[in-house]
Amino acid sequence: MTEPGIGSDLAAMSTSARREGDHYVVNGTKTFITNGINADLVIVAAKTDPSERHRGISLLVVERGMEGFERGRNLEKIGQHGQDTAELSFASVRVPAENLLGQEGEGFRYLVSNLPQERLAIAAAAVAAAEAALGWTLDYVRERQAFGQPIGSFQSSRFTLAELRGETDIARVFVDRCARALGDGELTPEDAAVAKWWCSELQGRVVDRCLQLFGGYGYMLEYPIARAYADARVTRIYGGTNEIMKEIVGRSMGL
User: Could you give the 3-state DSSP secondary structure of residue 5?
Assistant: First the structure.
């Protein structure tokens, strides 16, 4: 979906797919594409009807080796280095018409129907990351000594960790409720948006406060808390920025 010039505003995408006989001719550029380097099949959102906005978007399956389909560099990110993130370009790529995914002009509807599940997955991962950070930190503060006692025994440390545990437990309860709703086919876009933005904000907050308890060691990449700190930042951006999540929730309230 994402292009150099557009993120959440999918209707403004410029990648096009013009029908020519038994093929679509695809032109455009995508960026920040997860698994874009390694993927053999890429589902490309493109405008098959430039005169329309959302209703002009279709999904096409582009295959590795198709002439004109090129992968750019593996983008260098702050964190999440184990995951490839690519730039993709399409220069008059001829894609067979049978590679149309679903119906022409229905791409936006297909994408939107899956976004709540994606956002819930981000929320679940955020809670898991917060719980992991809390676990590492509890182990550390029990062992690290300062002024002749474990740093976890200081009231400041205890209060911080108690607060983080409470918030993380509450987040898990809400995510579990959303997961049950998804299984029942009842997960709403606004609940998924709440889960995504609140849990990703929580992840950043928990990891940051836990890193502080590690002191200077928390800034060293050999410690998992440092890598978790770098990995956490993007969760407030991908899957729809948290500002967009709040827009979704606000509009659902009739505002």
Answer: coil
